Amino acid sequence: MRGNGMSASVGRQCAMTSAYTFRNRGEAGCTLIEVLLSFIVTMIIVSVLFTILHPFQKTQDTKETGRSREAELFFIQFTPYFRQSTEFTISSTEKTLYLRSDRSGQEEVSSFTLHNGRIIRYVNGQGYDIFLEKAGDVRFREEPAGIRISLTFPDGSFSERVFTHTAGKGQSREHE
């Protein structure tokens, strides 16, 4: 091996000290093709996992967004009833809100309460309207100029809103 001026032992030393590798038969190591193939297989596995797991994340986001939309819709529907009322009363358990109003010359008492996982509105103790489905809990609390409604959903998500009463006539904890 005189042609290039390096013997086999010198080639092995260079393999350890330089960026170039001289592979002899029986030595362990990876070729560039093997590294590229393992990289491609890894990327395929990661993309498949991402494709499989992404809908689950999207479903969770949709549930949270849906809950906040449901709560917002409840608050929007509730607002006119509260603003048109002449006075309000909160039960001692903070689970029921009574609104007294004068509609067309007749006194009307609406009560908002949680019943079987729904927030419903009774009118003069008869019939009911469903205002919110799948509610876990509701709390009505008196504030200095109105009320605070706290909603908790079965999945643990939470929404809260304070309503200011124009008449400012609140009576707390009389019914129930």
Folded structure, characterized:
There is one protein chain. The protein is α+β, with helices and mostly antiparallel strands. The chain has a domain at 67-172. The chain has helices at residues 8-17, 32-84; strands at 87-90, 96-103, 106-115, 118-123, 126-132, 137-143, 146-152, 158-164, 170-172. Strands 5-4-3-2-1-9 form a six-stranded mixed β-sheet, covered by helices on one side. A three-stranded antiparallel β-sheet has the order 6-7-8, covered by helices on one side. The longest helix is centred in the first third of the chain and has 53 residues, at 32-84. Pfam families: ComGF.
Beta percentage is: 25-35%
Written as H for each helix and E for each strand, in order along the chain, the element string is: HHEEEEEEEEE
Distance between the termini: 105 Å
Main sheet characteristics = 6 strands, mixed
- Tally of strands: 9
How much helix is in the residues? 25-40%
Shape: rod-shaped
Uncertain segments are 6-18, 170-176
Major sheet strand order: 5-4-3-2-1-9
The tally of helices reads 2
Class from helix and strand fractions: alpha+beta
**Radius of gyration using CA atoms only:** 35 Å
Which whole number gives the mean pLDDT?
Answer: 76
Topology summary:
Elements: H1 8-17, H2 32-84, E1 87-90, E2 96-103, E3 106-115, E4 118-123, E5 126-132, E6 137-143, E7 146-152, E8 158-164, E9 170-172
Parallel strand pairs: 1-9
Antiparallel strand pairs: 1-2, 2-3, 3-4, 4-5, 6-7, 7-8
